User: Fold these one by one.
Assistant:
Number 1:
Amino acid sequence: MSYKGNSIFKGKFFVWLAALCFLVAPLLANTYMQSILILVCFYAFAAVAWNLICGYAGTMSLGHSVYMGIGGYISTILLETKGVSPWIGMLIGAAVAMLIGVVISYPTFRLKGPYFTLASIAICEIFGTFVLNTENLGPIPLKGGSGWSLTQTGYQAVMYEFRSKLGYYYVAFILLAIGVFVTWKMSRSKLGYYLVAIRSDDDAARSLGINVTKYKLIAMGISCFMISLAGTFYAQYFRYIGPDRIFGYDLAVQIALIALIGGQGTVMGPVIGAVVLVPLSEYLSATFAGTMSGLNLFLYGVIMMLVVYFMPHGLCEYVVKAAQWIEEKLFGAHGKRKQSKAASK
Amino acid sequence: MSVIVKMEHVTKQFGGLTAVNDFSGEIEKNAIVGLIGPNGAGKTTLFNMIANYYHPTSGKIYFKDQDITEARTEDMARMGLARTFQVTKPFGDMTVLQNIMVGAFLHTTNARQVEQKAREVAGLVGMTCDLDMIANNTTTVDKKKLEIARALAVGPELILLDEVMAGCNPQEKLELVDTCRKVRDAGVTILIIEHDIKTIMSLCDKIYILHRGEKLVEGTPEQVANDKRAISAYLGEDFDNAEN
Amino acid sequence: MNNLFLSILHGLILGGAYGLIAVGLSVIFGVVRIINFAHGAMLMASAYAYYELFTRYDVDPFLAMIVIAPLFFVIGFLLQKVVIRPLLIRERASVLEPTSVMLFTIGLDYAIANLYLMIYTSRYKTLNTWAYSNYARLFDGKFVTQYSRIISFVLAFVVAGILWFIINRTELGKRIRAVSQNRDAAALCGVNVHTTYGIAFGLGTAALAIAGACMASFYLVSPSVGNVFGTKSFMIVVLGGLGSIPGAIIGGLIFGLIEQVGAQFITSTMASMLSFILFLIVLVIKPDGLLGKKK
């Protein structure tokens, strides 16, 4: 069913409506709301990147934030030591993250199921520990556990620094839009079909001439490239990057949970997951700040368990169904018959 | 008739167990060749060696005069060899059509062409169900046909069918026999493993009987049916009576 | 040279505790074939149970263990029998690997860890038990270590021995082994598969509760210990061979040795990175672990 999830695009109306909402919403919001919207886009984009390999090919990574960290660190170090604009640094970081991702994944993709997951945790842990304990890597300063606080550049857009939150918002939104577009393109291309085939049964996939490792590596490369862009955004938006959070287990799991709860292996799933979870958790942690830290992540865990139990394909399935229902009411049943027939069986 | 697969003294051992012992044989182009034998005779092992799921301990296998003894599984489809699985392995989350499209993507990246090809193949094997159905929800016989269609979509010259008729009722078996004939008429050679003697006798041009990993008999259905060794080892004394 | 010898001893002692934490996970995987990602969180939960008992009623963790371990057996049994079983049955119909169970335990881990964070905040606590604050002096007083660490080391072998005995030498163990080898065949022979799974899960969780007593009395108690030790115990179990009881202990000893001996040369956090690298290398070269059997 999950593969069918992308049939939401048959109802283009809703996608354009959602895009319009995303475009207009920050203009109507106050700064606090804007910051939540930025986080929604940021987490949605990270989850979209995760989903591209982990959701489609079913390789459950719980250490994907490591590539976010690599991208963020590289662009930050380039900015702080050489004065390179993060717009360029972001691409350099992405290229390096992609390379590292592909090199590391080549051996670990041989591992199946939970073994791959454990390896991904270990990789993230290794990078995190290394950065935490290294002040200088040869001539390159890493600044160990203290991390980097970014110096002000005087709100220059060419240096990825904006005076108002709106600037950051639209950067995040464009990243997200690109991410969704790439996923959508991929899902209906050879690569997308091959990844879903590999997820279902890699023996059968091989018998159809699919070079399993090759296609997984391609998707991994794209995914690492994208998520490392999120890393640069993270560093620029928070004006800080340090090993604790970005190489930590919590962030990696959070990204995975957003995609899983939204619906893995679907185009819109990660976005839906972020739209539901991020405002909820931000609201809760703002309301109970200080008294009950952990409440927001506790809810992530509980919702994950409920989703596994009651909606194995994630929230996306229900959103699609609801959208189809509304569409039928609005525009009549034409053109939708096939989908609903398939869905009802 | 030219030969498409040639096996020379193929042996496969798993630890101390010899699953296939010194098997030699040929598959002629555009034939339907049957592989029968009791459980554990080594049929599927032989199959998996031709499809390069494992490699023989010793011996050589040639496909279209090329040595494929040590080739990789995923290269076989491009060379023109496709297979189905004894336990069907549909890509459960996808629709029937999307399943077949996965196979058809081998030679092109154009989604439109692929879809067209997939629909053609689905027609050829006689898929009766809605092509937009989720593969996991289809009936057993449709899953079998789906596997055949998916394998055919890669455009093979030889297709290996592993017990495609197991678990089907007589009516469905007839449908599948019909499918096999159509596939052969479309120019594809078939190697088929089957338990139902009656079906295989009527379908095949040539039959190999395997027994405890060794080739017991080879020949046309008539030759095999009259072979003393075959009758005592596998077909049973009253095979002739059962036939009628 | 002497320092090296001492660090080897420290490594073995610490490794024993690691092995003890990991052994329960290994039993669960060996039988039910799922990796319980909530393992670390449950360890942490048990440690807080000891913390409460010690601070409120002054009960030493090594004594409280007698009550907590059976309690955790019941928790593990129910978790499998009530919560995981329906997922396993549902998975049965479709895919080969129980992904949904894995996702469920990841969610459970996150939920438990953050629930305790909410209740106890991230401040860590130490339990000043007798075994925590008294030191054993061995080898002419050169080797100094807490009694609690020595008790943990001994307990690791005792618990591993008991589990090994139950699984390999008893009637119950015969059922457990049958189910782990082929659950359909075992079911046909009249073994109640899901009860057996529940018992295995319970045994693993009870072993974990014993490890929790050790950890509470030689380390500290905080919501994040689950994460630290949980991650390590996954690595240890895979290193030794998932499902192998001696493998878990040996994997634990290797981790302990690398961390303590490595700390002689580099910082201790860097040394723990080394053990992760070793884990990755073993995983890629021999995915079945050092003592694992080929499937």
Note: The longest strand of chain C covers residues 135-138.
Number 2:
Amino acid sequence: MDPTSKRLKLSLIDAEAYARRTVQQLTDSMFVESVRLKDVWADVYWCYRDGLGWYVKIYESDAGLAVISHHEPERPLKTIVGPVIVAVAPATRAPEEIGEDVNGHS
Amino acid sequence: MGIHDLQPGETSRCLSCREDAVTLQNVRGRTFDLRDEDDLVFDEDLKIPACGNCGEIDVRGAALRRFSGVLERLHAARKREAIESFVAVIDSEFADVPRQSWEDMLGISHGYLSRLQKGTRNLSTPLEVLMRGVAQEPTQALRFIAHSRRLPSALAEYLGKRPRRPVG
């Protein structure tokens, strides 16, 4: 929550809701790779939302879906279908951008 | 045992580092960052799941609301302290310099300092950095600022009267 809160200048509560909403809107085309975390596989997704690139890492835990990363991309990376996601979305919007503002309004 | 059903004395697996090191811990005294304020010292008793290996905490629901509320209060207090210490220094050490000169130097509109004091405006990060610099080392901060912009005459006069610190 802290990186999202810092980046968007949101409260922790709003940052959590924002991250939750991002995860709800991920699509297959935003998938990048699976990474091993000790005893589980986590999935990495990259997407644009509100003009910003986001790095999202999730996995299915015993307690439900665990969102363990939701922050600015540290380096450009390709999604499985090709688009390269960077920290700030290019002026021409990528087709995969999640089209909502910070408050979750479409 | 789920991380959010933890009872005192029980251990759970960390969702981030996957070590069996999550226990209920009282975070009083622990420091947290919130947005542009670092090292806010948590000053209430609150037991939340925290990992003894990677330090990750996991809060949600009512615990998150309480945790967030405390940090927001500490964040606001830190900002208020920056404003108050700045005003205390300019009032005590620069009694002859009008407020407007300080507002001109800071690049803010006349009356903005009062609005900051009343809490009707939020203190931005760059402004806070400048105000803290002036409050800590007024003369040095003014000399530093004078390198990049013309100081209001009252402040330039003040600097002109101060002997320069010898180099070396």
Note: Residues 40 and 62 of chain A are 11 Å apart (CA to CA).
